[in-house]
Write a structure and sequence with these properties.
This protein is mainly alpha-helical and 495 residues long. It has helices spanning 31-39, 49-68, 74-88, 107-124, 137-141, 147-183, 203-225, 248-260, 270-275, 278-304, 334-357, 368-392, 401-410, 419-422, 424-437, 441-447, 453-459, 462-465, 473-494, and strands at residues 2-4, 11-16, 19-24, 188-193, 196-202, 230-231, 265-266, 315-316, 398-399.
Length: 495
């Protein structure tokens, strides 16, 4: 790759193994990036800044390691490191222009980084962009490297660097749900299974379960990130390490650990890590699991808030915007709806990651760009959606205590608490009669003198019904004695 001086105003001509192309004179990218722009005008989307910065970290650490090994002279190496540091500081991000949907393995992305760093380093040394006799994108910036080891390493670093923001968002969400569980700990209601009335439960117990679901999902994600600390830098093209110093892998991992603050290490088997993208698939799957749980929570809140007249209306969600362009005063559960849609998108992204991971052939999986996009996009939208959901929805949820209590009192499933004494069959008859007459289980049990008033109050006490336990044995013994006494009296009268 070399620079040619001829070209129209505002352009420079660069040449590679395939021929020559004009490149904008003010561009830091070069001919290979320009070819990718012409070949892949697909989505107009690029990999995010966190990925670009992760790649710049790799180029910085590679230059430092190559200088340490005396493979790269300090003048060139220093200029490369300074250029990489400027990218890390947020400069030149508009120069990373390769589409997400690009050549397999991410070669165009790697060359985009190599060319931007090379041209900026050339300027630092006093040269003009495109004069690759000073610093060459392949020979110097890409020294000891291949796309096949740098691209997945950048994925690993970008994911690990994005992880704290996602985990922080999830912990705030879990904490908000746990606080609601404490506030609602005495609000009794009817549970539902199969969307039908079930035994009593406290509203706080439901919200406590939601909080634990989010906390456990966060732990699964954190656990799935641990294998991403393995690096395949030094594997070069096929995992064999050709054109890399024998100690390069260990030294560059140490340099990257210092730079990023991450505990990184070279993989034990560089051929295996070059072939397999299972670490990425497993992490993406953990994001999918989180989405399934979040979607369940959003759906449940929508159901509990349905109404306000013809639905359950057990809770009220904050009114954050008008819900209809035609129905005045209508308010919709928009934050839950937003969260649902984000969850659907993450599940779709995971599906793409799964197919891409399964597409590995022989020594390399070339589908890494779409995997990088899928995982980093999923992390980004989950972090933002969960933060907004926590702030704009969870923080303002209010229970309708009276309505929840009404559902509890009128639920025919209260008969479940009496089955240890009156038996399943008799309890089922009470349920049928309750549904037929509209009378509550408590009213029917009192009318038919199945239990005495004190025992009934104890049996249907909400606090007892929503924790482990069986209808008190003394009440059962007392009821049997009363029945036996009544039978004895009846026989005496007949006699």
């Amino acid at each position: 790759m070399k620079r040619r001086t001829r070209g129209a105003s505002g352009e420079r001509i660069e040449t590679d193994a395939l021929g020559s192309l004009p490149v904008p004179a003010n561009a830091y990218y070069g001919i290979q990036t320009r070819r990718a722009m012409l070949n892949f005008p697909i989505s107009g989307r690029q990999l995010p800044a966190v990925f670009v910065r992760a790649y710049a970290h790799i180029k910085d650490a590679a230059a430092a390691t190559n200088m340490e090994l005396r493979l790269l002279d300090r003048r060139r190496g220093g200029a490369i490191r300074r250029a990489a540091a400027e990218i890390l500081a947020g400069r030149y991000l508009d120069q990373f222009v390769v589409d997400v949907y690009q050549a397999g393995a991410g070669t165009s992305q790697n060359m985009n980084m190599n060319e931007v760093i090379a041209n900026r380093a050339i300027e630092i040394l006093g040269g003009r962009r495109g004069d690759y006799t000073l610093i060459h994108p392949n020979d110097h910036v890409n020294m000891s490297q291949s796309t096949n080891d740098t691209f997945p390493a950048a994925m690993r670093i970008a994911i690990l660097q994005s992880l704290p923001d996602l985990l922080r968002s999830l912990r705030l969400c879990s904490g908000a749900l746990i606080r609601l569980s404490r506030r609602f700990r005495r609000t009794v209601k009817s549970a539902r299974t199969h969307l039908q009335d079930a035994v009593p439960i406290m509203l706080g117990q439901e919200f406590g379960a939601f909080g634990e679901m989010v906390a456990r999902a966060a732990r699964r994600i954190e656990d799935a990130a641990t294998p991403l600390r393995r690096l395949n830098l030094g594997a070069t093209a096929a995992g064999t390490g050709l054109n890399a110093h024998p100690s390069y892998a260990r030294r560059v991992a140490r340099a990257l650990s210092r730079q990023t603050g991450l505990r990184l290490r070279p993989a034990d088997n560089l051929v295996e890590i070059a072939m397999s993208t299972a670490d990425f698939a497993a992490f993406s799957s953990a994001l999918r699991g989180l989405s399934l749980d979040l979607g369940k929570i959003a759906n449940d809140l929508r159901l509990m808030a349905s109404g306000p007249i013809a639905g359950l209306a057990e809770i009220a969600l904050p009114a954050v915007q008008p819900g209809s362009s035609i129905m005045p005063g209508k308010v919709n559960p928009v934050m839950c709806e937003m969260l649902n849609m984000v969850c659907f998108q993450v599940i779709g992204l995971d599906e793409a990651v799964s197919w891409a991971s399964a597409a590995s052939q022989l020594e390399l999986n070339v589908m890494m760009p779409v995997m990088a996009h899928g995982i980093l996009e999923a992390m980004s939208i989950l972090e933002a959606a969960v933060a907004a959901f926590t702030r704009r929805c969870l923080a303002g949820i209010l229970p309708d205590v009276a309505r929840c209590r009404l559902y509890f009192e009128r639920s025919p499933s209260l008969a479940t608490a009496l089955t240890p004494v009156i038996g399943y069959a008799r309890a089922a008859e009470l349920v049928k009669e309750s549904l037929r007459t509209g009378r509550t289980i408590a009213e029917l049990a009192m009318r038919e003198k199945l239990v005495d008033p004190g025992a009934l109050r104890r049996a249907l006490d909400p606090a007892r019904l929503t924790r482990p336990g069986i209808y008190h044995r003394e009440d059962s013994v007392r009821l049997r004695r009363r029945r036996n006494a009544a039978r004895g009296s009846a026989r005496s009268r007949r006699g």
